[in-house]
Every structure is written in C-alpha cells, then in structure tokens.
Amino acid sequence: MHVRSVGLATDLELARTRGSVLDRDDYLVVTTPDDPSYYHGNLLVLPAAPQVGEVAYWTRKFAAELGGNPDVRHVALCWDGIHGDAGATDELEAAGFTVDRSVVMIADAITAPAVPYEVRPLAARELPATAELEYADGDIHDDQHRRFLHRRAAWQQSLVERDLATFWGAFDGDALVGSLGLVPLGGRARYQDVQTAASHRKRGIAGALLAAAAAKVPSAELVIIAELGSAAERVYQRVGFRAIEHIASAVRRPS
User: Which fold has domain 110-217?
Assistant: First the structure.
C-alpha cells in the first residue's frame, strides 16, 4: 500500500524498529509483539478514512488480523491522508470509537533561546527516568499504565543502544524536568515523546530540547506530530515548525 502522509510514513518506520508492518496491498497490519495492549502499535492502516457502511467491515478485518491474541482487546484504525478527513465519524462514534485528530509539522532548523538548565543526551540506562516523569505528570496513575510506560522506555533504550536514536534530557540539579527523543529516518528525523515536568512548564525547556536535538542532525527534515489545537502545537510553531498536513485515527478502547 502506498502511503502519502509524512506523519503516517514516519509512524510506520518507527513501528518497524519495534514490531512488524505487514502489507496486505489494500491495507497494512501493524503489530508490536512485546506490547499487544499498545493501541497505536497494534492496528490496521487503511488507504483512506472509513466511509459510511465501512466501519463494521474494518472492525471485522481487525479481528481477523489481530483478534487471535487475547491480549489485544482494543480496535485501532488509522488511515492515509493529509487533509484530516475523519470519514464516517458518527458511525465510528456509534460503534464505540474515539476519533483523534493531529497536525503533522516539519522544520529545517529550530531556533530557541537558551535556558538555565543542563540539556544533554541521555544514556540508555537513564531512559526509565523519562517513563517516571511521564507517569508523575500524567492523568493515569495505575500499575498497568506505569508498566506500559516502562515497556516503551525499554524499546527506546534499545534504540539508543543500537545508535538508532538519541534521547535528550533537561535537568534542574539532579532532577530530570524535560525530555524528548529524535530518531533519524533517512532524510527525515522524527521527534518522540516531548515532555516537560508540570513544575517547569512555560520556561522554554521544550524549545531548548528541540533545538539541541536538531543541532545534531543538521541535514534532516525534522518531523513532529501534535494534537490539533494543543499548547504543544503552539510551542512547536514558535521554534520554527510549520504544519504540512492533518491526520486522523480512531480507537475503540477495551470495555
């Protein structure tokens, strides 16, 4: 299946570093064996947004491809496109799906002022601290979510160990107060998991991290994805990113 979207194409390249992407000609099957409960790592990629009458069909396809694993209890669909078409949203929502909309942004260079914090690459052994930072600042506080974050951090550790990515941290003394990853993908480089501790937001930390990481891949087109209309989108615009496409996806979470 040919993919037009830059955001989706980089998502798929990242997925291949952890699991598999199987091409069925008219759709793709993404699986992440080490985390079957990861919604965006176990999904179908459709050629276009599902239209009226197609939601049940793609739900059955998902069950046929991924439903054999009892730990896959969700249904996740994303689709190619650059204009944010969400297709049959009423039908998706009636079937229990939540539709998410995002903006894909690119930059050739990042400009951000310096901050009074240490900003440096993280060693692989430091990656679990990024999971703990997200857990502390997130809205979900249960063991299942914490284990999910640490499984993701273990994958990110492997990327660093294989020289496939660099993760960066900002430190206030010994405390990690911000982090992100940057994964080179040929002529592009994709940012991952940009976060700042709640206690240190609006201090320019995210911009400083984005700029520090970008300086190490000067020839790459920088790609980042943000929730449409979010504060993160505005931060990225201020440091040099511009929107190039809008994308959508849908997830039906376990009951």
Answer: Aminopeptidase (3.40.630)
